[in-house]
Structures are given as structure tokens and as C-alpha cells.
Amino acid sequence: MTPLKEFCNELIELAPEVRLIKDDPDSGPSPSIRVSENITYQAAPSAQELAPFLSALTGSSAPIDSATAEAIQKLQAPALIDIFMAPQCPFCPTVVNQVFSLARASSLIHVNIIDGTLFPELAGEADIRSVPTVILDDEFRWTGAVQLAEIVDMMLNRNPARLGADTLVKMLQDGSAGRLGEMMVESGQIFPAFLELVAHPKWSIRLGAMVAFEYLAESDQHLAGQAATMLLDRFWDFDDGVRGDVLHLVGESGYLPARDRIADIARETFSEEIREAADEALANLKRGS
Length: 289
Hints:
Blueprint: H1 3-14, E1 33-36, E2 39-42, H2 50-58, H3 66-72, E3 79-85, H4 92-105, E4 109-115, H5 120-125, E5 133-136, E6 140-143, H6 148-156, H7 165-173, H8 177-187, H9 194-198, H10 203-219, H11 221-233, H12 240-253, H13 259-268, H14 272-288
């Protein structure tokens, strides 16, 4: 039995009113305990770490000052925070509880607690050398004591083009595909991680990316053309299912210079399905010209 499952079973024995539900594996990091919609644990909290866990479970959190609370309301894109801790760390519970208050203030802030001793491979990948370590979007990090206002300021002033694929996936899962397209139009560039969403193995994510692309096609022909070119450059790296989606998007983009490349694809492929998708894309481009 894994430590996380063992912890959950012990919790249910001690608090029978707590219900344990097996969750969708795509709903968050795995394996993990999802305490709320935006708080997860890759840890089996014990001793001093149990108090923050119970606070998260009951929906309580440390208070935050009014200026920080007001600033959080300006957040427009999801923020993914990992907190690496260790059971013997005396400072970790305080930091965990502090950051939980941000998650309570905004559903866009997703917090995952990771026990580096229980998941050493994750700690190694993140180059964790001491705890507590707070990591925002796999890029910005704080070690030791944290200032919530500083973390929120970084969330608000991130370069959206540098948002990772996981952050953009959260936007799509939250129903903000149109907003993702709008953000790319506002910044005047295609976010590199956006291309990963178009090729995502999960169909619902690819569908959300297509909605964001359609927003580009309607709002900014130049950007839609850039995205179409970038996708065609990677066309043969995708599997046939994704290739069909890419051809559909290029056809919807209205980007006429893509016609020759689509015609080449139709000649080069052995797949009847891809040839049909290419013919449909060419017809869509012709109608839009």
C-alpha cells in the first residue's frame, strides 16, 4: 500500500465523515491527494504538517492583508505553485499555510505540496537543495521564508508568452480558451507552449486549443498565419489524428500562403484521411480568399 493511500485510510478511520473518492487521473498530479479544486498533496502529512492539511480540508486559511487580496483579483491566467517540503522541516508548515491563503483567495491559483523525501525523483528534477522551496510555473522560486505580496506580484507581471503548457492546460480546463486566444492577440505573439496544446494527447485539450486558434483567426489574421506556419513546420512530427486537426486549423486560418504546403502534404502522404483533410483545408482557404 502506498503511503498516500495508507494515510487516507487512516484519516477515514479517525474521521468517518471524511469521504475518499477516486479521482480522474487527468485532474491533477499523480499520485496525489486532491484536497480541493486547487489544492493537492503529493505527501502523507504527519506531525506538524498535519495542521495545514486539516486547514485546507476544512477550508480555513491564514489571513492575508487587504492590498495582497485586492491584487490577487487582477490575476487573469492560472498560476501553478509547487511547494517542496520535508516532514522534519520546522519552517515548512508556516510556508504551506501562507501559500494556501492565496489558493483560498483565487481559484486560479493551484497549489501542490510535494514531500521531497517521498518523491525524490520530483525533487531531483526540480533541483531542490533545501526546504521549504516554493516554485511558480516551474520558473520562479523562493527558498525559506516567503513574502506573499512578492509571489502575487510575480504572478501578475509574468510574461504570458513564457507560461508553460501546464498553465495553459489549466486555462483550457477552466473554460478559458477564448481568453487564451485573447492574451496572444494582446501580446502580439504566439505562445510557444500553445503549440504543445494543439498536439496534446487528450482530445478535450486539443479541442480547447482549436477554440483558442479560431479566436486568433477571427481577431488577428497575421497571428493566425504565424500559428499556421509554425504548425505546418512541425506537421510530420505529429501523429495522423493531430495532423488532421492541424490541417483543419490551417484551413480556418485564412492564411493563403499555406496553400502550396498543404498541396505538397496531400501529394506526400499515404493516408487517405490526411489527403481528405488537406483537400478540405484547401477548399476552406479558397472560400475565404
